[in-house]
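Task card 7
Instruction: Convert sequence to C-alpha coordinates.
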Amino acid sequence: LMPTDDVQALVKVLPTAFASSLPMLTELLNGQAIPPQLHQPVDSNNNEIFETAVKVVMSLLSILKKQTPVLVILQFEHGTSLFPSTTREDQKIFWKMTTDLATLVQKEKNIAGLILCREADRTNIAVKQAIETNSLLNLKGLTEENILEYMSNYLGIAEAAVPVELRQFISEVTLGNPLYIRETLDQLMEDQHLRVNQKQGAPVSLKQGALDRIEITALDHTQMVG
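Output:
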Protein backbone atom coordinates (compact mmCIF):
# COMPACT_ATOMS: atom_id res chain seq x y z
CA LEU A 1 0.00 0.00 0.00
CA MET A 2 1.10 3.55 -0.72
CA PRO A 3 1.92 5.49 2.49
CA THR A 4 -0.41 8.36 3.37
CA ASP A 5 2.57 10.55 4.30
CA ASP A 6 3.64 12.58 1.25
CA VAL A 7 7.36 12.25 1.88
CA GLN A 8 7.20 8.48 2.44
CA ALA A 9 5.11 8.09 -0.72
CA LEU A 10 7.62 10.16 -2.68
CA VAL A 11 10.45 7.91 -1.52
CA LYS A 12 8.65 4.92 -3.02
CA VAL A 13 7.97 6.45 -6.46
CA LEU A 14 10.84 8.92 -6.95
CA PRO A 15 12.86 8.00 -10.06
CA THR A 16 16.46 7.07 -9.23
CA ALA A 17 17.72 9.95 -11.38
CA PHE A 18 16.24 12.35 -8.79
CA ALA A 19 17.31 10.47 -5.64
CA SER A 20 19.80 13.21 -4.71
CA SER A 21 16.95 15.76 -4.84
CA LEU A 22 14.93 14.08 -2.09
CA PRO A 23 16.06 16.45 0.71
CA MET A 24 15.02 19.59 -1.18
CA LEU A 25 11.74 18.00 -2.29
CA THR A 26 11.04 17.04 1.32
CA GLU A 27 11.60 20.68 2.23
CA LEU A 28 9.02 21.67 -0.39
CA LEU A 29 6.43 19.13 0.79
CA ASN A 30 6.89 20.31 4.36
CA GLY A 31 6.10 23.87 3.30
CA GLN A 32 9.57 25.21 4.05
CA ALA A 33 10.26 26.33 0.48
CA ILE A 34 8.39 29.42 -0.64
CA PRO A 35 8.36 30.75 -4.23
CA PRO A 36 10.16 34.15 -4.29
CA GLN A 37 7.79 37.10 -4.71
CA LEU A 38 8.50 40.26 -6.67
CA HIS A 39 8.85 42.33 -3.52
CA GLN A 40 11.34 39.90 -1.94
CA PRO A 41 14.99 39.09 -2.74
CA VAL A 42 15.31 36.19 -5.18
CA ASP A 43 16.30 32.98 -3.45
CA SER A 44 18.16 30.81 -5.95
CA ASN A 45 17.72 27.78 -3.68
CA ASN A 46 13.93 28.09 -3.81
CA ASN A 47 14.06 28.48 -7.58
CA GLU A 48 16.13 25.31 -7.82
CA ILE A 49 13.68 23.42 -5.60
CA PHE A 50 10.66 24.34 -7.71
CA GLU A 51 12.48 23.67 -10.99
CA THR A 52 13.41 20.23 -9.70
CA ALA A 53 9.87 19.59 -8.46
CA VAL A 54 8.47 20.30 -11.93
CA LYS A 55 10.98 17.91 -13.51
CA VAL A 56 10.02 15.20 -11.03
CA VAL A 57 6.31 15.69 -11.73
CA MET A 58 6.89 15.40 -15.49
CA SER A 59 9.03 12.31 -14.99
CA LEU A 60 6.36 10.65 -12.82
CA LEU A 61 3.71 11.46 -15.42
CA SER A 62 5.82 9.80 -18.10
CA ILE A 63 6.01 6.67 -15.95
CA LEU A 64 2.31 6.69 -15.06
CA LYS A 65 1.16 7.04 -18.68
CA LYS A 66 2.70 3.63 -19.43
CA GLN A 67 0.11 2.11 -17.09
CA THR A 68 -2.97 4.21 -17.87
CA PRO A 69 -4.03 7.29 -19.87
CA VAL A 70 -3.54 10.44 -17.80
CA LEU A 71 -5.45 13.72 -17.68
CA VAL A 72 -3.56 16.50 -15.87
CA ILE A 73 -5.62 19.48 -14.70
CA LEU A 74 -3.87 22.74 -13.80
CA GLN A 75 -6.03 25.41 -12.20
CA PHE A 76 -4.93 28.88 -11.15
CA GLU A 77 -6.68 29.65 -7.87
CA HIS A 78 -7.11 33.40 -8.16
CA GLY A 79 -9.05 33.77 -4.92
CA THR A 80 -9.12 37.19 -3.30
CA SER A 81 -5.42 38.05 -3.31
CA LEU A 82 -4.96 41.64 -2.18
CA PHE A 83 -1.42 41.90 -3.54
CA PRO A 84 -1.15 42.24 -7.35
CA SER A 85 2.63 41.69 -7.29
CA THR A 86 2.13 38.36 -5.52
CA THR A 87 -0.52 37.32 -8.03
CA ARG A 88 1.77 38.19 -10.97
CA GLU A 89 4.57 36.06 -9.56
CA ASP A 90 2.16 33.18 -8.91
CA GLN A 91 0.97 33.46 -12.50
CA LYS A 92 4.55 33.23 -13.76
CA ILE A 93 4.99 29.95 -11.87
CA PHE A 94 1.62 28.69 -13.14
CA TRP A 95 2.36 29.45 -16.79
CA LYS A 96 5.87 28.00 -16.52
CA MET A 97 4.32 24.76 -15.26
CA THR A 98 1.76 24.97 -18.06
CA THR A 99 4.52 25.29 -20.68
CA ASP A 100 6.29 22.21 -19.33
CA LEU A 101 3.02 20.27 -19.34
CA ALA A 102 2.22 21.33 -22.91
CA THR A 103 5.66 20.19 -24.06
CA LEU A 104 5.09 16.81 -22.42
CA VAL A 105 1.60 16.46 -23.92
CA GLN A 106 3.02 17.10 -27.39
CA LYS A 107 5.41 14.16 -26.98
CA GLU A 108 3.19 11.72 -25.09
CA LYS A 109 -0.06 10.50 -26.67
CA ASN A 110 -1.38 9.00 -23.43
CA ILE A 111 -1.23 12.32 -21.55
CA ALA A 112 -3.74 15.14 -21.95
CA GLY A 113 -3.85 18.50 -20.21
CA LEU A 114 -6.68 20.78 -19.09
CA ILE A 115 -5.84 24.36 -18.05
CA LEU A 116 -8.34 26.36 -15.98
CA CYS A 117 -7.71 30.08 -15.43
CA ARG A 118 -9.45 33.44 -15.39
CA GLU A 119 -7.37 34.95 -18.20
CA ALA A 120 -5.44 32.92 -20.77
CA ASP A 121 -1.88 33.94 -21.60
CA ARG A 122 -2.08 33.82 -25.38
CA THR A 123 1.71 33.86 -25.68
CA ASN A 124 1.90 30.54 -23.82
CA ILE A 125 2.51 27.43 -25.92
CA ALA A 126 -0.42 25.56 -24.32
CA VAL A 127 -2.86 28.34 -25.14
CA LYS A 128 -1.52 28.56 -28.70
CA GLN A 129 -2.06 24.81 -29.09
CA ALA A 130 -5.61 25.14 -27.78
CA ILE A 131 -6.36 27.92 -30.27
CA GLU A 132 -4.91 25.89 -33.16
CA THR A 133 -6.99 22.83 -32.25
CA ASN A 134 -10.14 24.87 -31.54
CA SER A 135 -10.18 23.72 -27.92
CA LEU A 136 -9.92 27.10 -26.19
CA LEU A 137 -13.20 27.72 -24.38
CA ASN A 138 -14.27 31.03 -22.87
CA LEU A 139 -16.63 30.40 -19.95
CA LYS A 140 -18.83 33.17 -18.58
CA GLY A 141 -20.53 33.48 -15.23
CA LEU A 142 -24.29 33.42 -14.78
CA THR A 143 -26.20 36.62 -15.49
CA GLU A 144 -27.94 38.39 -12.59
CA GLU A 145 -31.24 36.89 -13.73
CA ASN A 146 -29.69 33.42 -13.80
CA ILE A 147 -28.07 33.98 -10.40
CA LEU A 148 -31.46 34.82 -8.88
CA GLU A 149 -33.00 31.69 -10.38
CA TYR A 150 -30.04 29.60 -9.18
CA MET A 151 -30.26 30.99 -5.64
CA SER A 152 -33.99 30.37 -5.59
CA ASN A 153 -33.55 26.73 -6.60
CA TYR A 154 -30.65 26.14 -4.23
CA LEU A 155 -32.40 27.65 -1.21
CA GLY A 156 -35.73 26.08 -2.13
CA ILE A 157 -37.67 29.34 -2.05
CA ALA A 158 -39.47 31.59 -4.52
CA GLU A 159 -37.39 34.13 -6.43
CA ALA A 160 -39.45 36.97 -4.93
CA ALA A 161 -38.41 35.83 -1.44
CA VAL A 162 -34.69 36.41 -2.12
CA PRO A 163 -33.71 39.77 -0.54
CA VAL A 164 -32.44 42.30 -3.08
CA GLU A 165 -29.32 43.07 -1.03
CA LEU A 166 -28.48 39.36 -0.83
CA ARG A 167 -28.90 38.97 -4.57
CA GLN A 168 -26.61 41.94 -5.22
CA PHE A 169 -24.00 40.72 -2.73
CA ILE A 170 -23.86 37.24 -4.26
CA SER A 171 -23.61 38.66 -7.78
CA GLU A 172 -20.70 40.91 -6.86
CA VAL A 173 -18.55 38.48 -4.89
CA THR A 174 -19.07 35.31 -6.92
CA LEU A 175 -18.97 36.74 -10.47
CA GLY A 176 -21.73 34.27 -11.35
CA ASN A 177 -19.72 31.14 -10.58
CA PRO A 178 -22.27 28.45 -9.50
CA LEU A 179 -19.82 26.76 -7.11
CA TYR A 180 -19.00 30.06 -5.42
CA ILE A 181 -22.71 30.90 -5.17
CA ARG A 182 -23.45 27.65 -3.33
CA GLU A 183 -20.42 27.96 -1.07
CA THR A 184 -21.13 31.59 -0.17
CA LEU A 185 -24.76 30.87 0.66
CA ASP A 186 -23.70 27.89 2.78
CA GLN A 187 -21.15 30.05 4.61
CA LEU A 188 -23.70 32.80 5.26
CA MET A 189 -26.11 30.25 6.71
CA GLU A 190 -23.39 28.55 8.75
CA ASP A 191 -22.41 31.91 10.25
CA GLN A 192 -26.12 32.64 10.88
CA HIS A 193 -26.13 35.78 8.75
CA LEU A 194 -28.81 34.10 6.63
CA ARG A 195 -31.65 31.87 7.75
CA VAL A 196 -34.02 30.01 5.47
CA ASN A 197 -37.29 28.48 6.64
CA GLN A 198 -39.28 27.01 3.78
CA LYS A 199 -42.36 26.29 5.94
CA GLN A 200 -43.11 29.73 7.33
CA GLY A 201 -44.62 32.77 5.63
CA ALA A 202 -41.33 34.73 5.70
CA PRO A 203 -38.88 32.07 4.46
CA VAL A 204 -35.72 34.20 4.50
CA SER A 205 -34.21 36.10 7.41
CA LEU A 206 -31.14 38.25 6.70
CA LYS A 207 -29.42 40.04 9.56
CA GLN A 208 -29.68 43.81 9.28
CA GLY A 209 -26.44 45.19 7.82
CA ALA A 210 -24.74 41.78 7.97
CA LEU A 211 -23.51 41.87 4.39
CA ASP A 212 -21.86 45.26 4.89
CA ARG A 213 -19.76 43.90 7.75
CA ILE A 214 -18.60 40.69 6.07
CA GLU A 215 -14.93 40.40 5.17
CA ILE A 216 -14.73 38.38 1.96
CA THR A 217 -11.33 36.99 2.95
CA ALA A 218 -12.93 35.57 6.10
CA LEU A 219 -15.12 33.18 4.08
CA ASP A 220 -12.72 30.35 4.84
CA HIS A 221 -14.96 27.50 3.67
CA THR A 222 -15.06 28.59 0.03
CA GLN A 223 -12.74 27.87 -2.87
CA MET A 224 -13.41 31.46 -3.95
CA VAL A 225 -10.98 32.71 -1.29
CA GLY A 226 -7.28 32.00 -1.84
